[in-house]
From TrEMBL:
Superkingdom of this protein's organism: Eukaryota
Annotated ranges, domain Intradiol ring-cleavage dioxygenases: 98-230
SUPFAM superfamilies in the cross-refs: Aromatic compound dioxygenase (SSF49482)
Name assigned to this protein: Intradiol ring-cleavage dioxygenase
The species this protein was found in: Lineolata rhizophorae
CDD domains named among the record's database cross-references: intradiol_dioxygenase_like
Length: 347
């Protein structure tokens, strides 16, 4: 059952500002970037930050503004990038239930390092949302999701039956008193039919188990986060991204990204480079609006157990392929098994 009340972070902007939550977020993000640079022995540098589906695609989240370490941190980290997790955005066929609670999800995957700072905002109270589990999952640099075996992914992953037991680039974190979660990941690559994106899902009232997974509670929202086209264009010139020869859908042609932007919020992360080169890594942030009273019934493609992954009968997409769905470019006929499908009515 879905909550009838829907509100975005923008609706809460004045309250959050008056209560000092944005000011605190600005200082926290500045401190994180400074710490990350020190850990990597990277020098202080000009902070050129990221802030346009039409308006979203027209917005450059990596600004050309002349910003230096002496500039106001409000200018650098204070932009109100927000995304409401819509109950109408599909979890897709690559969600695996039973993932681990952990901050670093990279395992052995290589790519452009991504440090994510996400603040959850309760859109009913206009306050940060503490003690909420946020789950993320994405494909690797060559378009392959660990934990599933399906067509449509990059580099022939459909034939790799061992992939169902892999857990890279999947994880869960509990938000702190300020509603903040952090992840260490990589910028994902692309696969046929989709632009670069990271899936996010919130769990309200879940319990942490002894095996470091969660159980119970309710899935309250599902969404996807995106990156500037200019950023992923540059990412795709680097190895191992450039070795992926799968057809590439850009932001402007991604129908699920378009739907995510229809809420009025901006699902594209803000970001700064940690060093002078993209290869030094990226620090990205976004505020996510969540209605914790909303309840969803997502369907995992696979359930991770102590013995490895177990394929679910409905493959994460019960009901089959919606009628009238156009096939993505790159397929001569038919819709590939495991291909992400468009959002379906979940009333």
């Amino acid at each position: 059952m879905s909550s009838p009340h829907k509100r975005t972070v923008d609706d809460c902007y004045s309250q959050l500002q008056e209560r000092g939550h944005f000011a605190k977020a600005i200082e926290r993000r500045k401190a994180k970037v400074q710490r990350l640079r020190q850990e990597r022995n990277l020098p202080e540098r000009s902070l050129i930050h990221g802030r346009d589906i039409d308006e979203v695609l027209a917005t450059n989240h990596h600004s050309d503004a002349e910003v230096t370490p002496e500039s106001s941190v409000d200018m650098i980290f204070g932009s109100n990038a927000t995304c409401i997790l819509s109950p109408d955005v599909t979890e897709g066929p690559y969600w695996v239930a039973g993932e681990l609670v952990r901050e670093d999800v990279t395992e052995q995957e290589t790519g452009v390092e991504l440090m994510l700072d996400i603040q959850l905002i309760n859109t009913n109270t206009c306050e940060p949302l503490p003690e909420e589990y946020l789950e993320i999952w994405s494909c690797n640099a060559t378009g392959v999701y660990g934990g599933v075996t399906a067509g449509g992914m990059g580099n022939g992953a459909a034939e790799d039956t061992t992939n169902i037991d892999k857990t890279a680039l999947r994880g869960i974190q509990l938000s702190d008193d300020d509603g903040v979660v952090s992840f260490k990941a990589i910028i994902p690559g692309h696969y046929i039919g989709r632009t670069h994106h990271i899936h996010v899902m919130t769990h309200t009232g879940a319990e942490l188990l002894e095996n470091n997974t969660i159980s119970g509670g309710a899935v309250t929202h599902v969404g996807q986060l995106y990156f500037d086209q200019d950023l992923v264009d540059e990412v795709e010139t680097l190895e191992p991204y450039s070795s992926n020869d799968a057809a590439w859908t850009k932001n402007a042609d991604d129908m699920i990204m378009a739907q995510g932007a229809e809420t009025g919020d901006d699902p594209v992360v803000e970001y700064v480079f940690l060093g002078d080169d993209l290869a030094d890594g990226v620090f990205a942030w976004i505020n996510i609006g969540v209605d914790p009273d909303n309840v969803m019934e997502p369907h995992p493609a696979v359930t991770l157990t102590e013995e490895g992954g177990v394929q679910n009968e409905d493959g994460g997409m019960p009901g089959g392929m919606p009628s009238g769905m156009p096939f993505p470019s790159g397929f001569p006929s038919g819709f590939p098994s495991g291909m992400p499908m468009p959002p379906r009515d979940r009333q």
